[in-house]
């Protein structure tokens, strides 16, 4: 089955916005489908890449390691998002590592295909819009780190790393604590409190959102 038929939602991907339907389908069908049953490294920080990835289903963890070896999870990308396109077009090494969550399907777009479509003004505009969205996300992230309480940060990350259609977050409490800037013990107590009130469920390395409304209300509390 062609990619454009198997994953019709990708026809609305931001990368392809404004292109004729025939061009969208041709682009998707020229990509190579790849299923990642387990956590799989797709892009590695500081290494070159020969193509980019469009997420068809599942999620991808974007992480960065600083000069001291500290690991930060900077984003959890979901369906419709593209990763690695800037490195392909600029012919630079990867700014971060991208590791798929289990049961993730991606479409691999080789550099030659991306350069072919990069001649279209719509694609240049779309990539600029994607970069703008990333800047806004990074600005929001800095705001969370500086002005939100630990409780508010937890709700923000639980909302950011999940969706209503995919409520399962695969992240360790140690990683979550590092993101929030507090101890693992503090995160453990907060998560258990949310579990006891029925907002989440916990299993090894996973957090499952049960009450999305409660998470949204907690995340929006700082803004009210």
TrEMBL record:
Domain Cyclic nucleotide-binding: 15-107
InterPro entries the record matches: cNMP-bd_dom, cNMP-bd_dom_sf, Env_Response_Regulators, HTH_CRP, RmlC-like_jellyroll, WH-like_DNA-bd_sf, WH_DNA-bd_sf
Domain HTH crp-type: 148-213
Keyword Translocase among UniProt keywords: no
Alphabetized Pfam families for the sequence: cNMP_binding, HTH_Crp_2
Any GO CC annotation of this UniProt entry: cytosol
Any GO MF annotation of the entry: DNA binding
Keywords from the UniProt entry: DNA-binding, Transcription, Transcription regulation
Domain of life the protein comes from: Bacteria
SUPFAM superfamilies in alphabetical order: cAMP-binding domain-like (SSF51206), Winged helix' DNA-binding domain (SSF46785)
SMART domains tied to this protein: cNMP, HTH_CRP
Protein name (record): cAMP-binding protein
């Amino acid at each position: 089955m062609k990619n454009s038929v198997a994953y019709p939602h990708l026809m609305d991907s931001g990368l392809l916005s404004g292109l004729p339907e025939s061009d969208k389908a041709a682009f998707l069908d020229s990509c190579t489908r790849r299923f990642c049953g387990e956590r799989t490294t797709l892009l590695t920080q500081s290494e070159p890449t020969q193509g980019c990835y469009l997420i068809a289903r599942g999620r991808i963890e974007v992480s960065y390691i600083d000069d001291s070896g500290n690991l930060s999870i900077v984003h959890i990308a979901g369906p419709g998002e593209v990763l690695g396109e800037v490195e392909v077009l600029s012919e630079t090494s990867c700014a971060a590592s991208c590791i798929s969550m289990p049961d993730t399907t991606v479409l691999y777009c080789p550099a030659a295909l991306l350069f072919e479509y990069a001649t279209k003004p719509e694609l240049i505009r779309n990539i600029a819009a994607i970069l703008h969205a990333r800047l806004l996300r990074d600005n929001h992230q800095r705001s969370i780190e500086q002005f939100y309480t630990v409780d508010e940060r937890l709700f923000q990350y639980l909302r950011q790393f999940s969706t209503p259609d995919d409520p399962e977050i695969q992240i360790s409490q140690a990683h979550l604590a590092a993101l929030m800037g507090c101890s693992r013990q503090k995160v453990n107590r907060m998560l258990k409190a949310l579990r006891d009130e029925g907002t989440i469920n916990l299993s090894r390395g996973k957090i499952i959102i049960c009450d999305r409304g409660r998470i949204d209300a907690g995340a929006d509390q700082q803004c009210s």
